[in-house]
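User: Show me an example of a complex going from sequences to structure tokens.

Assistant: Sure. Here are the input components:
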Amino acid sequence: MFAGAAAAILVALALAVLRAIKGPTVFDRALAGNTVGSLAILLLAVFGFLTGRPEFLDIGITYGLLNLIGTLAVLKFFRHGDLAYDPEEER
Amino acid sequence: MESLINMVLLTLLAATTIAIVGQRSLLGVVILASVYSFLMASVMIVLDAVDVAMTEASVGAAISTVLLLGALHLTKTREEAPRHGRLLPLLLCAAVGAMLVWGTLVLPPFGTPDAVIHQHVVPRYINETVRETGSPNIVTAVLADYRGFDTLGETTVIFIAGIGVMLLLGGLRRRDRAQDSAAEDQR
């Protein structure tokens, strides 16, 4: 069962990577990048159960947090053209 | 199953790398680099190196993305025409790559227990760590006890680098503020 889940995740991963490569807009890429991060978490969880070591599950939480940071940074950069954007300065 | 997962992940890694090289939009390159890091972290997990995978995910996917975006803010968007021919860099890259592959040929097979690195000091660490240091975690004992001075040096270097970055950033901000007030005076 876990092998089937892992195979399905790999297919989804391939599709997400394909979208990240093809683009065409930045939003496609940002979304695909975020999806790859989420699928990496799923793969980590399923692989832990597949090899009989589900202790790796906790690391998935860290991955989730990191994934959020990366996507937020990309979106913030795209919106404001700067990471250290301060709404006070615009007034 | 494990080798199948590895094969798929490595194929995706290769595809991502080629896409990064061919990509013209720098923002796209940054996102693809983060995708690459997550794939690499997955490969590390399949190879049973969970700690390395965590480092790869935090440094490669999170911090480098932020740093590369910060660098993107400071660069120009237009690409300048290369001053030299493209043949020499290509040949150099191919030669270095071929040398690296050639170097891996003499490495012991993956996962073999009688490789040199597993025969030198590792048996002693495994047998004596608990008695000598009292720590049940061998990695912690190696980092903080057997190689304590090494770790002290590393933390010193990182501390100095941090001070340097803070001084640089502080100087930049002060200059910005001085320019701002000068501009306001002119108005």
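The lines above are the inputs; the final block is the predicted structure for all two components together. The helical segments of chain B are 2-22, 26-46, 50-74, 87-104, 116-119, 122-133, 138-146, 148-186.
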